[in-house]
Give the backbone structure.
Amino acid sequence: MSYPKYFMEKGGFKMDISMKHGAEKNPFITLNPPERAVIFMQQHIGVCNGPLVKKGERVLTGQKVGDAVGKMRVPVHSSVTGIVEDIREVYHPVLNRLETAVLVRMEGSEEMKPLPSTNLDSRKEIVDMVREAGIVGMGGAAFPTHVKLTSKGVHTFIVNAKESDPNLVCDVRLMIEKPEDIVKGIMLMVKALNARRIIFATRTREGEIPELEEIMLEHGIEIVRVTPSYSVGSEKLLVKELLGVEVPTGKFPPDIGVVVNNVSTAYAVYRAAYLKEPLISRGLSFYSDTTGIDNLWFRAGTTLRELMEGLEHETRRYDRFVMGSLMMGWSVGLPHTPLLKYSAGLTALTPEFPKPYDEQLKCIRCGYCDSVCPVDIYPSLIMKAEKEDDIDALKRLHVEDCILCNLCSYVCPSRIRLTKHLWDGKDKSRA
Ligand code: SF4
Ligand code: SF4
């Protein structure tokens, strides 16, 4: 069966992704650095950082301003040169709670603090450099990249350039603008892992980015065209799609000898290794219902308002913002909310854009949610078990396998927000 070209499908469900068609042709617009950068201590999965600087101290661009002890620690760096104006709690748009942030007021001319020099001859040197650069998974998970690079017995390294979200094109734009640099980043990670096979999984068509394809072939990287199905870049689903192997429940790809990293992560590794620049900036796709998609290069700690002003949009024209992917992102109400070092998308909607239904109706047992689930679990049954606090049933129904993609909520004709029950069910099953 053939579908119109710009639709994604799963279990009979089709999603219009025409909003992103052609948007990868829009070059990155580099935004001015924020006047006051808000640098959260927690911008990764793992141990929360503590501030390394004091109020009133002068810091340089790229200077480490927060770090912690332990394996799952990833430092954070100032994205501007200036004075630490304050260290206080600020609303964190992903964690949905107040979190400690260092606020740096930009002052004077920019001065960069480069990362320490290293030969990058050994795995340890590469891993240490990646950690010092504060690099996390740029696909949205923010998992510490250096931890992945310490995986043992890895035979296959997969670069995830699937970018399946309906409003994101910044990865493909990066592939068009920085092909050589991306490959340099990939090869460094491969060196650390000592992987034999390298697969580049992309939704682009053959010949669409010839320069990138040529360099990849020179380096023995297999390019695999994946279907543009929506699966939130799930590593497990990608491994299954590419290698035909299931990663068991409770295990991760490195447990079966596979490491997956996002293409923007590879570029961040390049910048750290070759430009001595930690992760303080990245590409982002900005979608508004009035202008479509723009690709931006922004510094961490830039607020939504500054981003909009940089594009000459009036913030007050919009009444809703979604940070991240349209399907998986978080609604943020305040225009002074800062972007994180791994934020890949931002959507701004005017009051004219149709609003979601508020009222939830009763479940009519249509089974749409179950049929659309990409990991083949039963969200309708999990919702029931979660409401009844039935922990045994939650475990039996494999709530842990849920990748929180939101598809079940999206298709429900009764407008039931199933994903909230999946979140809560996961929490309860772990307690
Ligand atoms: S949110 Fe979870 S349960 Fe719902 S469709 Fe996605 S993976 Fe399945
Ligand atoms: S899609 Fe909605 S109405 Fe249909 S079974 Fe799932 S929860 Fe019930």
Summary: Residues 372-375, 377, 379, 402-408, 418-419, 422 surround iron/sulfur cluster (ligand 1) (CB under 6 Å). The chain has 13 helices and 19 strands.
